[in-house]
């Protein structure tokens, strides 16, 4: 979906007069037709504005996660709501470090658990054997 406001150089809160002037200035006939169809009809503009807010939020979320579109999607209508990756506000690196540390601790536990488990079973068997010999003997 195209970001009609961005492509027309408008603020989403622009009034009817501003929208009409921006549409008249537009030289792209398909964009002009889309803008007239959507932004000049109040009910359609309300629906578009609700979608615009949602897609803008998704674009901000993708940027915060460091996600971008592949090169063949860039500069097209699919890329209108994309923002550059937000590495400053992202906690990606911190979360990856915590995940790596947790994975290392998990792997270390699994490596050590095998020998300790076997040694524990052997010790338990010996203690039960000694207790059984004393009880029977």
From TrEMBL:
<feature type="transmembrane region" description="Helical">
    <location>
        <begin position="116"/>
        <end position="136"/>
    </location>
</feature>
<keyword id="KW-0472">Membrane</keyword>
<keyword id="KW-0812">Transmembrane</keyword>
<protein>
    <recommendedName>
        <fullName>J domain-containing protein</fullName>
    </recommendedName>
</protein>
<keyword id="KW-1133">Transmembrane helix</keyword>
């Amino acid at each position: 979906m195209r970001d009609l406001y961005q492509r027309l150089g408008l603020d989403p809160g622009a009034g009817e007069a501003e929208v009409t002037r921006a549409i008249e200035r537009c030289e792209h006939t398909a964009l002009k037709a889309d803008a007239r169809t959507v932004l000049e009809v109040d009910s359609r503009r309300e629906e578009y504005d609700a979608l615009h807010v949602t897609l803008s939020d998704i674009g901000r979320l993708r940027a915060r996660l460091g996600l971008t579109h592949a090169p063949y999607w860039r500069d097209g209508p699919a890329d209108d709501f994309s923002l550059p990756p937000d590495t400053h506000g992202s906690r990606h690196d911190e979360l990856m470090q915590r995940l790596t540390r947790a994975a290392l601790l998990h792997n270390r536990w699994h490596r050590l658990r095998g020998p300790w488990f076997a040694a524990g079973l052997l010790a338990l068997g010996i203690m039960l054997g000694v207790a059984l010999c004393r009880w029977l003997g």
